[in-house]
Write a structure and sequence with these properties.
This protein is an alpha+beta fold and 349 residues long. It has a domain at 53-212 and 245-294 and 306-330: Thiol Ester Dehydrase, Chain A (Roll), CATH 3.10.129. Helices cover 34% and strands 16% of the residues. It contains nine helices and eight strands. The protein has helices spanning 5-28, 33-42, 46-58, 66-81, 117-133, 136-141, 143-146, 266-272, 308-327; strands spanning 95-100, 161-172, 181-191, 196-204, 208-209, 226-227, 249-259, 262-264. α2 (33-42) crosses α3 (46-58). The longest helix is centred in the N-terminal third of the chain and has 24 residues, at 5-28. It is globular, with a radius of gyration of 24 Å.
């Protein structure tokens, strides 16, 4: 999701997409589908057409514009289907996106190519951010009206709203085979004064399911995570399990929010979406770190409401991992332009 994408989505891409769908529907109604389908499946060259159609169906996500369709589907889906309100605990909950390894994603080792994980991450993050922060982004984008973002001098910030991807790290643990189904479990890991960190786990489809969906109870295992093979059914408590054994890969990404060239504090976007409880003192953007004054959180009630202490404790826990990832930005300084030479320049890169 590049800076400026969302600022163009509603006034430009959404009307264009609607017009394209309307035109395609108008043209489709003029086709004699019975004759067309009969010719397709029984006419000369049917075997080649059927095999080609099967190939395209199995590889649609890897075809030209496939990525674009997946990204804009996430925007439109949550624009139309998102609940009006989400519970406070949803801030750190997983967004689960299902997919399948296409044949065109398979490398010479006969498993999903490492490079293709990053396109999937784009889609998974788009679902998460659109669902969680969707209501907050228009508020920040219309800052002249809502007056949420000001610079250090207290002046109101203006400009087009956008989201920029700063970096992605991915750790591979086990392979995903051709045509194998898998799920991307993405959630907010932490944030600081500039970056929103998102963690994504790639899990084979059907291995794990959440104990509940936000706003809907899921039976006797409410509040717990369970395996999808039925463990814990019948009212029994689910035993604690090392769910990391199901993870095929884990990625961390960081997003930055922009109004023009001005960097918007992630807490302002989260707060505008109604997912941050009120915090005493200097709030979520105060203190030396710009993320609130570092009070002792004391003993937390794990079963209680998601007050500011529980949110801050979860943010700090995720930040312990995110800070190591952020430290890698300094490796840019290692580039010396080949001051001591290079081994060569090669074609077909």
């Amino acid at each position: 999701m590049a800076v400026g994408t969302l600022s163009l989505f509603y006034p430009v891409f959404l009307p264009m997409s609607a017009a394209a769908v309307a035109f395609a529907g108008h043209r489709a109604l003029q086709v004699d589908w019975r004759t067309a389908l009969t010719h397709f499946f029984t006419g000369p060259g049917r075997t080649s057409r059927i095999l080609l159609a099967l190939f395209l169906a199995l590889n649609w996500k890897s075809l030209p514009l496939g990525w674009t369709v997946r990204i804009f589907h996430s925007f439109i889906y949550h624009l139309l289907r998102r609940p009006k309100t989400l519970p406070q605990r949803a801030l750190f909950h997983y967004s689960i996106t299902a997919s399948r390894t296409s044949l065109l994603e398979t490398d010479y080792n006969i498993h999903k190519s490492n490079s293709t994980y990053f396109a999937d991450l784009d889609v998974s993050r788009s679902h998460l951010v659109s669902h969680l922060l969707g209501p907050g982004m228009p508020i920040i984008a219309r800052n002249a009206r809502y007056q949420r973002v000001r610079d250090k001098e207290g002046r109101l910030v203006t400009g087009s709203f956008g989201i920029g991807l700063g970096a992605v790290f991915c750790s591979f643990r086990r392979e995903l085979g051709p045509l194998q189904g898998y799920e991307m479990w993405s959630r907010i890991l932490a944030w600081d004064r500039k970056w929103l960190y998102i963690v994504t786990h790639f899990v084979p489809k059907g291995k794990v399911r959440p104990a509940r969906w936000d706003g809907r109870r899921m039976g006797p295992t409410r509040g717990r995570v369970q395996r999808a093979d039925g463990a814990g059914a019948g009212g029994d408590k689910v035993e604690e399990e090392d769910f990391s054994k199901y993870v095929a890969a884990t990625a961390i990404s960081k997003y930055v929010f922009k109004l023009g060239r001005f960097t918007v504090h992630p807490a302002l976007v989260i707060e505008a979406a109604g997912l941050l409880p009120e915090r005493p003192g200097e709030g979520w953007c105060g203190g030396e770190t710009g993320t609130g004054t570092p009070e002792d959180l004391g003993e937390l009630d794990e079963e209680g409401e998601w007050d500011w202490k529980r949110v801050e404790a979860e943010r700090r826990k995720g930040l312990e991992y995110a800070e190591h990832f952020a430290a890698l930005d300094a490796t840019n300084s290692l580039f010396d332009g080949g001051a001591d030479g290079a081994i060569g320049k090669f074609p077909l890169g």
